[in-house]
Amino acid sequence: NAGVTQTPKFQVLKTGQSMTLQCAQDMNHNSMYWYRQDPGMGLRLIYYSASEGTTDKGEVPNGYNVSRLNKREFSLRLESAAPSQTSVYFCASSGRTALIEKLFFGSGTQLSVL
Amino acid sequence: AQTVTQSQPEMSVQEAETVTLSCTYDTSESDYYLFWYKQPPSRQMILVIRQEAYKQQNATENRFSVNFQKAAKSFSLKISDSQLGDAAMYFCAYRSARNKLVFGAGTILRVKS
Fold it and tell me: What is residue B96's predicted lDDT score, i.e. its pLDDT?
């Protein structure tokens, strides 16, 4: 099925460990996003990529890095995880097909940093 | 920077009644898009309705309609004939011309039978 594939679904890290969240879309979308969702704070934009080869900071980029590897893939890296990064992470992609704009979300990653 | 504010953390509505969820945003841009998304407990994000800023006519999708006031930077969602399946978290979102997509904090909607 077409959509956004996000891995892993769950992850537990110790403070200081590093990890990469993977995201891939097969809809030929130009734009891709990484969000974190915390109770009472909604979805906060970490980084986004408006097109292949470009990335821009969102609202909460500190402690994260991203790579737009190609048009399909947009990864999020935590270099040194902190308990404040415990959250649910969502990848999303958007594009226009037949003049209709669509936004698709991955199923989310529950990350706990101990 | 663009911001989206949803001032109602939680709302309740009786089944078959009408409820309005509020959203305001701040931007200096003239060209942008606004969205309402629904997030049920499954965490899936579902598009409810979208509005292009250049269109004066308010968008409608079946029981869902918006009141878009561009000058006031307000974008409220009206749900008519509320159903139990409407219960969810609702997010208002703003997308800039450069494709930056920002969400509000969300409003939990409870539907009473």
Answer: 85
Task: Please name the residue of chain A whose CA is at the shortest distance from the CA of residue B41.
Answer: A107
Spatial CB neighbours of A45, under 8 Å, sequence gap ≥ 6: A33, A34, A35, A58, A59, A60, B100, B101, B102, B103
Cβ separation B91–A42 shorter than 8 A = yes
Distance from CA of A80 to the nearest CA of B (A): 26
If DSSP codes are grouped into helix, strand and coil, which group holds residue A85?
Answer: helix
pLDDT tens-digit readout, B74-112: 999 999 999 999 999 999 999 887 778 899 999 999 999
Nearest chain B Cα distance for residue A36, angstroms: 11
Separation between Cα atoms, residue A56 and residue B74, nearest integer Å: 27
State how far residue A65 is from chain B, nearest Cα, in angstroms.
17
Kindly report the three-state secondary structure assignment for every residue of B63-107.
CEEEEEECCCCEEEEEECCCCHHHCEEEEEEEEECCCCEEECCCE
Whether residue B101 and residue A107 make contact (CB cut-off 8 A), yes or no, is no
